[in-house]
Recover the amino acids of this structure.
């Protein structure tokens, strides 16, 4: 098992990048009224056929050669179900994959969010040619980061390899996450 | 709380440092961090952040940083490979964020391998 949601996100979204996705949407929605957290990762990668999809939640299914177990998806499913949440995976060959995991926020086994900003920055650095879109919302207020917008401002995709730029992206995301988390207290009551 | 950063900062970063991109994909000096499930669980993302912070702090621009998946040495994660042109590729294991500055200073910059953290070498 991983420590927090941000580590699950990194792990699951890397699958999308390795599936040759051109666009990956990572949505994390916190709902304080329903006490839920829903994570959805959707990609336009190579997808899986029905047979592989049936097996993919089994740890002994993997495409890699280095070791014989694949733990990413089983870990996420186990973490979601451990806090009375849900897990769902849909995939179509050549079209893409959508993974959804729900968590009960007030459940004792609900993992903390962790460093989501570092996760998104790591994904961007690792796969700068992929269009990463990250949406974080708290009770309906959201922050969206679209890598295409960043590249418009940067002017050069190669700059995503610069430590200075990656660290800036991490801090920028963190700032917006903090902002939304703070908003919750004041405006949610009204 | 007013926002401190906005996207226009990126234009400034770009203009201020014209030489940021010397670490292009074909760069000869390289740091590779294992970022498979095993690496993530062991703290590889924190090690990567420490590497980026150290390179930025020292103003090192000719080192390309990359991530890779599981290479089958899960028990030694987090794994960090240091590649210097013309030298064997060195794999460091059980890396912690606090090991990073030493490995960058001694190995990446000065070329002296930090043997106590080495778990593999490829010629």
């Amino acid at each position: 098992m991983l420590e927090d949601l941000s580590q699950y996100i990194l792990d699951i979204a890397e699958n999308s990048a390795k599936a040759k996705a051109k666009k990956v949407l990572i949505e994390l929605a916190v709902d304080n009224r329903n006490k839920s957290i829903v994570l959805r990762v959707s990609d336009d990668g190579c997808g899986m056929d029905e047979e592989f999809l049936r097996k993919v939640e089994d740890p002994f299914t993997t495409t890699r050669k280095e070791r014989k177990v694949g733990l990413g998806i089983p870990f996420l499913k186990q973490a979601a179900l451990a806090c009375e949440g849900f897990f769902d995976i849909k995939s179509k060959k050549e079209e893409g994959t959508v993974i959804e995991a729900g968590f009960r926020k007030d459940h004792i086994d609900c993992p903390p969010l962790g460093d989501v900003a570092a996760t998104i920055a790591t994904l961007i650095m690792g796969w700068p040619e992929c269009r990463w879109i990250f949406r974080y919302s708290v009770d309906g207020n959201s922050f969206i980061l679209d890598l295409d917008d960043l590249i418009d401002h940067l002017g050069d995709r190669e700059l995503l390899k610069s430590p200075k730029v990656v660290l800036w992206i991490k801090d920028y995301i963190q700032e917006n996450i903090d902002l939304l988390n703070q908003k919750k207290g004041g405006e949610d009551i009204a | 709380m007013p926002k401190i950063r906005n996207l226009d900062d990126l234009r400034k970063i770009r203009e201020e440092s014209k030489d940021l991109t010397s670490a292009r994909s074909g760069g000869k000096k390289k740091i590779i961090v294992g970022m498979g499930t095993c690496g993530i669980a062991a703290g590889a993302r924190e090690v990567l952040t420490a590497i980026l912070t150290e390179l930025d702090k020292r103003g090192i621009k000719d080192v390309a940083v990359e991530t890779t998946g599981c290479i089958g040495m899960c028990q030694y994660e987090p794994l960090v490979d240091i590649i210097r042109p013309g030298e064997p590729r060195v794999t460091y294991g059980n890396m912690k964020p606090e090991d990073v500055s030493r490995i960058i200073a001694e190995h990446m910059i000065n070329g002296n391998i930090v043997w106590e953290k080495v778990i593999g070498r490829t010629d």
